């Protein structure tokens, strides 16, 4: 009897763990990244980064790659090798290699084996984090749909400064377009308008477009394009502008995303004079894909361009009148949200145009 018990215990202790690897999910991950990301994916770097997710379950894992293979180390010893396919775009080969690497890691790490259900999410997080700062992956239990789109605070203010209407827009949410329209309708006596976008980090692009429509008559405000400038989509202001008088737009180093798109469009269509500091330079669009495991993939898929085709991302908008230092011919970025001198300068310029 003792021999039987000893045999059972010995067998249990020597039985290797294994991971339940969903190859279909791995295929979905890599295929989505390769098809939707704004630039071609480097699968070697992406898979290497993804496998680094094993270290989130077991700190003994370290992953790196050479010329023709990816090395997986555990506690300073090689525990696995992932061959790099001759065709680095062969998703099926990558999936098989990743699955084998995960299973092999589970055999030498109890923690990976017991928590193998977390591995796909951890791999996906690392893969996407390797791409850019605006792409993210959220597990089924992390993603919150009710944030920016459901904002209830307007972060908006208006006031008359003599015969000039001052509009301060700190974020574009679902109320912004109507709020600006209401301000313009309530002050038909305004001979000039200052649109203050300092500190505006963006928000809902459709609301920024609504604001553009209040000031422009059938003008191109921006266009978007994905990888290799494919599938261009032009956004116009439509007809029937509510206000056609002198317009100044204030920007600073924290003016970003939809706010930059609006400022750039108004500037290039000669509809407004832009003053302040160089803007932030965030001009990409993120697409949300629901994965088969319930996770959400937020992936940079397109970017905005000014009407003339200038890239906004990492370039920003150069003001017509720089209120900051000029270095190498370009206005520097600076936070100027509470600088009242900017408003005074805007009023001075408007007086010359009124």
Outline the structure in words:
The structure is a single chain. This protein is of the alpha/beta class and 354 residues long. Helix content is 33%, strand content 23%. The protein has a six-stranded mixed beta sheet, sandwiched between helices. Strands 4, 8, 9, 12 and 13 form a five-stranded antiparallel beta sheet that branches. The N terminus is likely disordered.
How far is it from the N-terminal to the C-terminal residue, by CA?
103 Å
Give me the secondary-structure category. alpha/beta
Strand order of the largest sheet: 5-6-7-10-11-14
Tell me the series of helices and strands, N- to C-terminal: HHHEEEHHHEEEHEHEEEHEEEEEEH
Summarize the structure.
By secondary structure, the protein is of the alpha/beta class. It contains 10 helices and 16 strands.
Offer a few descriptive terms.
33% helix; five-stranded antiparallel beta sheet; 16 strands; disordered N terminus; 10 helices; 354 residues; six-stranded mixed beta sheet; alpha/beta
């Amino acid at each position: 009897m003792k021999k039987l018990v000893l045999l059972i215990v010995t067998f249990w202790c020597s039985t290797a763990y294994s991971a339940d690897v969903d190859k279909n999910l791995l295929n979905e991950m890599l295929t989505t990244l390769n098809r939707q990301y704004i630039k071609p994916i480097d699968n070697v770097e992406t898979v290497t980064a993804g496998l680094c997710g094993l270290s989130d379950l077991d700190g003994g894992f370290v992953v790196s790659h050479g010329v023709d293979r990816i090395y997986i180390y555990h506690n300073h010893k090689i525990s696995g090798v992932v061959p790099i396919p001759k065709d680095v775009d062969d998703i099926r080969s990558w999936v098989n290699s990743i699955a084998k690497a995960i299973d092999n890691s589970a055999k030498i790490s109890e923690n990976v084996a017991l928590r193998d259900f977390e591995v796909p999410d951890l791999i996906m997080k690392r893969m996407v984090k390797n791409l850019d700062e605006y792409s993210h992956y959220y597990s089924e239990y992390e993603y919150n749909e009710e944030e920016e789109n459901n904002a209830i605070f307007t972060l908006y203010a208006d006031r008359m400064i003599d015969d000039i209407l001052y509009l301060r827009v700190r974020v574009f949410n679902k109320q912004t377009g109507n709020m600006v329209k209401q301000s313009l309708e309530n002050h038909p006596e305004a001979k000039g308008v200052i649109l203050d976008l300092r500190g505006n980090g963006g928000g809902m692009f459709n609301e920024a477009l609504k604001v553009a429509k209040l000031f422009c008559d059938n003008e191109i405000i921006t266009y978007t394009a994905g990888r290799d400038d494919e599938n261009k989509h032009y956004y116009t202001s439509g007809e029937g502008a509510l206000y056609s008088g002198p317009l100044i737009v204030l920007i600073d180093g924290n003016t970003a995303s939809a706010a930059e798109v609006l400022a750039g469009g108004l500037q290039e269509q000669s509809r407004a004079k832009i003053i302040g500091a160089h803007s932030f330079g965030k001009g990409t669009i993120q697409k949300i894909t629901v994965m088969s495991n319930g996770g959400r993939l937020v992936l940079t898929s397109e970017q905005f361009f000014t009407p003339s085709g200038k890239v906004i991302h990492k370039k920003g908008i150069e003001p017509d009148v720089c209120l900051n230092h000029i270095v190498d011919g370009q206005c520097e970025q600076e936070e100027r949200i509470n600088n009242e001198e900017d408003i005074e300068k805007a009023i001075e310029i408007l007086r010359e145009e009124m």
